Amino acid sequence: MSVLSVEGLSKTFAAGGMFRANGKAKRAVDDVSFRLDTGETLAIVGESGSGKSTTARLAMRLLQPDTGQICWADEDVSAMAGRALRQRRHHIQMVFQDPFASLNPRMKIWQSVAEGLRVHRPGLSRQQQRDRVAESLHLCGMDDSGMDRYPHQFSGGQRQRIGIARALIVEPAVLVLDEPVSALDVSVQAQILNLLQDIQRQRGLAYLFISHDLSVIRHVADRVVVMFSGRIVEQASAADLFEHARHPYTRALLAARPVTHPNERSSESCEYDSEGEGEAEQGCAYQPRCPNAATDCAAFDGQLVDEGYACLHPVEFLQKHSPQSTQRAQRKAEEKQHQ
């Protein structure tokens, strides 16, 4: 069952704003569509400025889309506003990137976690609110003895647990996780990721997971959407994407991952490193960086093909015709002749 779906989502920011691009209006999200099912984790990945966080905020209706449809479960919320939208916000909640900034330093922990209850469960007494807060904190591995303390009295990992408890207290169907572990130490990251997976299994939650860390994505995601310049350029199951990436941009992201040993970085991966910069204004936006951009790319409409990628010359083509691949083929042929 779909708990979140977006269709043809687009958003443009006017020139002069925080998303200004060379003095022109910036198309931050362009014709984005996806769906998220119960119990599933869908990851959106891409470089800074690719549109992944804007897409998440549009899906949450924190931003108003220019065009497109947004459905929470089977209900279209694209044009909802005011009280009608506020009454439905319990369906989808967000866990923010920075646990230090996401909590009000002047509010006690129980007050911060209970904020959603005051909006969506106004009939609860103060004691009932505290009881619900204690339950939510326990679910996130926190002791309720700290309910009357302030955020500065907790570590970063504890604050993120509190942020998760605050999101869960209104019993959402979807959690939007915007870089939820990037501000934490590596050891704490693993704890938070394991916690999120445990909660997902217990409650059947769906996660929309925004991240630039492909190692994290490989660990948590069921499906992956790759964005570049506001558009989806590839989507696949996590297993297929990491083993058989088709779009050159996806391959460049995979090639850029940190490795623990130089031998892990294969010569084949290096073929897809991005050497150019910028984005093309017509056709495929990735042309200036693509290792095998051709003249027909300037007229490409950027639509995904049935295989789930938006490219006229996917990785198989590059492997067959790139100079490195040709040299390897020649070496193999010479080796066979000498045998």
DSSP strand count: 10
Output the CATH class name of the largest domain.
Answer: Alpha Beta
Helical residue percent?
25-40%
Q: Quick one: overall form?
A: globular
Q: CATH topology of the largest domain, anyone?
A: Rossmann fold
User: What distance separates the N and C termini?
Assistant: 58 Å
Specify the biggest β-sheet: 6 strands, mixed
- List the total number of helices: 13
Q: Determine the CATH superfamily of the largest domain.
A: P-loop containing nucleotide triphosphate hydrolases
What is the residue-averaged pLDDT? 87
Strand content: 15-25%
Contiguous runs where pLDDT drops below 50 for at least 5 residues: 321-329
Strand order of the largest sheet: 6-7-8-3-9-10
Q: Give the domain tally.
A: 2
Strand-pairing-aware structural class: alpha/beta
Structural features, described:
This protein has 339 residues and is α/β, with parallel strands linked by helices. It folds into 2 domains: 2-227, P-loop containing nucleotide triphosphate hydrolases (Rossmann fold); 265-338, no CATH class. It is 35% helix and 19% strand. The strands form 2 sheets. The protein has a 6-stranded mixed sheet, sandwiched between helices. The chain has a 4-stranded antiparallel sheet with strand order 2-1-4-5, covered by helices on one side. Strand 4 and strand 5 form a beta hairpin. Helix 5 (126-139) crosses helix 6. The protein is globular and about 70 Å long. Mean pLDDT is 87; it is low at 321-329.
Structural descriptors:
single chain; alpha/beta; 339 residues; globular; four-stranded antiparallel β-sheet; six-stranded mixed β-sheet; 2 domains; 13 helices; Rossmann fold
